[in-house]
Structures are given as C-alpha cells and as structure tokens.
Model the fold of this input.
Amino acid sequence: MNPYEDILPIEEMPSLAKKLGKSGVERVRYPKIADTTPQKGATNIKNPIINEMQHYQPNTLGCPVGELIEAAASFDINQERPLNINRLYNILQCMPMINNREIVKMTRLTKGQAGKYLRSIKFILPFLEKAIEENS
Done:
C-alpha cells in the first residue's frame, strides 16, 4: 500500500507550488517517485547522513554543515553560477541512494547538470559526516 496514493500531485495545486518555490516542489514530488535501488553502471552513493540532515536547514549562520554545503555549491569553478543550495539540501535530506537517475527524477535537470550535483555531493559527503559527528 502506498501512503501517498490519496494525495494530489503537487502540479494540481498551483497556489501551494508557487508558495513552495521550485526546490520545495521538488522535495514534495520526490517521495512518490523515489527508487532506492542502485543504478547499474553508474556512481551510487549510499546516503549515511539522511536522518541527521533533517535537523539542518539552509542559510543558518555559523553552522559548519551549512558552510560545507555552500562550499559544495561552488565546487566546480568552471560553472558560471553555483549549484542551488536548497537543491543540495533536498538531495541530502530525501535520497537514501544518491545517483544521477534519482537527481534527474527529483530535479528534472539534464543528466549533465545532475552529474554536477552528484560530483559535489560525492566530494563533500565525508566532510559532512565528520562535521555532523562533531556537532552531535
């Protein structure tokens, strides 16, 4: 039994979608379409901090986890603008298995853009684990 089957899709609630913004809509839509199986032949990252990440939110001053995520957003110096910080939080708070397929599903980005988020998360994850451990 799917606990989400009686809930209207976010696309059918335009006022709520507008209030939540793009990142909020991605977060609401994702649990219905999530797949925790590893993607064959791709980078799969088991998310060991998914539960701990529920206690963190973007733009918290002096938070070491937030500072690391902000650093991850600007990880690729070749991009014109940094990655979306709210989207990085969504991925870390919602995906038990992080891979390109799931990022594309959640965000509706291209595979190339999703790959940038995946690389940033892969790089920053060990530092986040350490920061969360030290903050506990």
Remarks:
- Strands lie at 45-46, 97-98.
- Residues 111-135 form the longest helix (25 residues).
